[in-house]
Amino acid sequence: MTNSVIVSHVKMVNLNMSFINIFSMNKVILRIVITLFVSILLNFDVNVEANAKTIGNNSEMVGIAPSERENDKYQSMTQLEDETTEGVDWKKSIRNTGKEILIVAPHGGNIEQGTTELTKALADKGNYDYFSFEAIRPKNNSELHVTSRNYNDLMLNSMIQNRKATISIHGAKGNEKIVYIGGPRSDLRNEIEKKLISRGFNVMVPPDNLSGKDDENFINREKGNTGIQLELTYALRKSFFTNNDVRTKNRTYQYNWTHEMYVFLDALYNSIHNIYPNT
Known about the structure:
By secondary structure, the protein is of the alpha/beta class. 40% of the residues lie in helices and 17% in strands. It is built from eight helices and nine strands. Helix 3 (115-126) packs across helix 8 (259-275) and helix 5 packs antiparallel against helix 8. The protein is globular and about 45 Å long. Mean pLDDT is 83; it is low at 2-20 and 37-69.
């Protein structure tokens, strides 16, 4: 065997050994990656379980809502009304007869579809007062959203005075049928949670930005006025109307309201009546 042949064999052996070493190293790295991935999954399960909360004395386990919320174009209702046109961009529907219960849709009409209809239906069923701000643009209605802590509408500020309870109905994002219940803990909040769960609705705890506990939130501005903030996902609100159609012309007519809408409505009414039977 010539020297050149021997050198070639030696080089090939070294090359094979390099491949073997690389393969062995890759196996070690792969095992490390798999171990880390399994550890992450286990920790995720623990965190999910830790984040679950119990509603009142009920054993139902509830999760946490997504916390995303786009920034508002208008930083107050005063700014919104100064820079837009009533009757073109928005309108207000109000009943103010001095009843002790007030139902509010602060982002009604085409901002958070279905909240105006639910607000008025609940107010009619219980003979309560209501306030509904309704976006009526053909498009870009979400621009008319003003967050509750900045909601300085003069009429609403006047209406929340001398009430036993103010219930604010909102819409949240979501492809699952969920209602997030916020506001300071109270007998009324506990009763609403209990009733909705008993009727088969999926009740969850909202994240901090949807919790309704901020002192500046209009539901909490008056002492002695119990504040409740309900956030209904898009999927749940769609289920209140035939064919999941939340367009204005479909929402307007009660014959397009589904059984699920009436069950939800009845649960809210009975909750209020149980806590405030003489209102």
